[in-house]
Amino acid sequence: MGVGKNDEVICQSNTFIASVNPVIYQGATPILVDSEADTWNMCPELLEIAIKDRISKGEKLKAIIAVHLYGMPYKVEAIHSIAKKYDIPIIEDSAEALGSSYKERKCVTFGDLYIVSFNGNKIITASGGGALITKHKALKEKAIFLSTHAKDKSVDYLHSNIGYNYRMSNISAGIGRGQMLALDKYISTRRQNYVLYKERLKEFDTIRFLDEPKHHFSSR
C-alpha cells in the first residue's frame, strides 16, 4: 500500500499484535483506535475522531487496518463510509474470519487487501502461514514480487527493492486445500461449542459472551 517511514496507519487496539507489527516493520506509526461494545471491533465514532485529529496535525493517514476479531465482522458499512469520506484504503484483517459473513457477503471481500491466517489455532490450518487476497491485479503482482525476495527480471541476481521470503511451501498449501473442504463442518462445530459454553456458564453473571448482532450480522 506504499506505507513507509513516518507514515501513519490506523489500527484496532483490541487485537493480536500481528495486526500492528507490519506497520512498525515499515518504520510507520500505528494510531490505535478503541473498540465498541457490539462487536468488540474498531469503533466508527472513535475512528473518525482519530482521523480528524491526525489531519488537523498535518498527518496523512495511509491505511486503516480493520479486524474481524474472533470471526465477528466489524461494522463494515460505518467503517467503510468513513474511509471513503477521507479517501483512506482499508486492509481487512480476516485472520479469524474465514467463513464469516456480513449481510450474506463473505468477510474477505470488503477492503482493498484482505488477509486470512492458517495458523494452528484458526478455523482451518495449514500448520502455519496465511493468504493475501485482493481484487486489484497490480497489488497482487506487487505482493508476489515482494514475497519472493523482490528479484528483478534478470538472468542475474539483481534486487532493486527489499524483498522477503514469505512463500508457503507446497506441502502446507496442500494441507490447507484439503482443510478447505471441511470448512463448513468446522464452522458448525464451533457454533455448537459456543452454544454449549453459553448454556453451561449462564449462571455466572461475571461472564459475558460476544453475541452476534442479529439485525445485521451473520458470522461464524
Short description:
This protein is of the alpha/beta class and 220 residues long. Helices cover 31% and strands 17% of the residues.
Q: Residue share in helices?
A: 25-40%
The fold-level CATH name is Aspartate Aminotransferase, domain 2
- Average pLDDT confidence is 92
Number of domains: 1
**What is the subunit arrangement here?**
single chain
CATH architecture: 3-Layer(aba) Sandwich
Largest sheet: 6 strands, mixed
Strand order of the largest sheet: 2-1-3-4-7-8
Morphology: globular
The run of helices and strands is EHEHEHEEEEEHHHE
Extended strand count: 9
**Low-pLDDT windows of residues:** none
User: Structural class, please?
Assistant: alpha/beta
Number of helices: 6
CATH class: Alpha Beta
Give the terminus-to-terminus CA distance. Answer: 29 Å
CATH homologous superfamily grouping: Type I PLP-dependent aspartate aminotransferase-like (Major domain)
**Percentage of residues in DSSP E strands:** 15-25%
